[in-house]
Task: structure prediction
Amino acid sequence: MPMAACPLCAAADRPVYATVAGYRYHACAACDFIFLEPEAMARIDRGESLRAYDAAYWAAELHSARERSWGPAIARVAELLLYCRIPVERFIDIGTGPGYLLDALSWFLPASRLVFHGVELFPPAEAERTSHPNYRTGSLRSVPGPFQAASCIEVIEHLTPTMVAGLATDLASICAPGACTIFNTGLTDYVRHEDPGYLDPLDRGHISIWSVTAARRVFEPFGFQIHAIPGKTWAFLAEYRPPEPAPIGSLTDRIWSPCPENLAILNDPTTGSVLHILGRESARAY
Result:
C-alpha cells in the first residue's frame, strides 16, 4: 500500500485513508489530518487546479452559497459575536463567494450593515454578486485592517497546507489583538463518522480535511490560539493574540457574558433579539 509524507509533521509513513475519483487521500494519526496525495498537492501549489473556480463552478455552487448564507452561516456569525472578547467594529467574511452572507446580515442586522465586509479571490460574474458596498474582490492581504472578527466558511478544505499557512499569515496581518475567526469546514471526525462523501477532489474541490490538532500546527506559530467548539465536528475558532490565553473548554461559557458592544449588534433596533437568541442557542445545541 502506498505511503506518503504528512505535509504538517513530515512523517513519511502515512497510509492511504481512501481513494476517491482516482485520487488517494492519506491520513496522519499524529496530526489528525487527512490530505490528498502529495503529487497532486504539489501540482496545486504550482498553480494547477483539480477543480477550476470558474463560471461552471459558480453555476453549480450559487444555490448552495445562497442556502448556506441565509442559514448556517448566519448562525456561525451570531455565535462568533458572542465568543469574541473584544468589541467588534469591523467583521470580514473570507472567501465570501458572491457575498450573499453580506446580504443576509444586512437583512437581519440593518443597523450594523456597514460593520460587515467580504472578500473573494475567485468571484462569480458581477451580475451574480452582492451590491453591498463592503464587498471586495482580491486576496485577503489586499483588504486594509484591522478586523476584530472574521468568518471563513467552506474554504480551507479547498486549500493545501501551504495555502493555509499563507492564509494564516494574511489573517494575522489584518487581525486586531483578540480578534476571533470562525472556520466552518468538515473536520476529520465529520468525514469519518458523518459524511465520507465530503472527500471530493473534483466536483467540490475538497483536498484537505482539518482537525483542531492539525489547525494548531499551522496557526499557532502566527499567534493564534485554536479552540474546539463543543459538539461541532465542522467548525473551530482561531483567536489572535488573545488578551490572556483561554482555558481549554471554556468557549461556551462566553455566551453568558458577551462583550456589550457585540451584544448590541445582535440586538438590532429593527429586527430585535433574533440573532442573539440564534447565536446563544446554536452554541448550546451540540
Notes: Residues 228 and 249 are 7 Å apart (CA to CA). The chain has nine helices and twelve strands. The chain has a mean pLDDT of 94. The domain at 51-186+195-284 is CATH 3.40.50.150 (Rossmann fold).
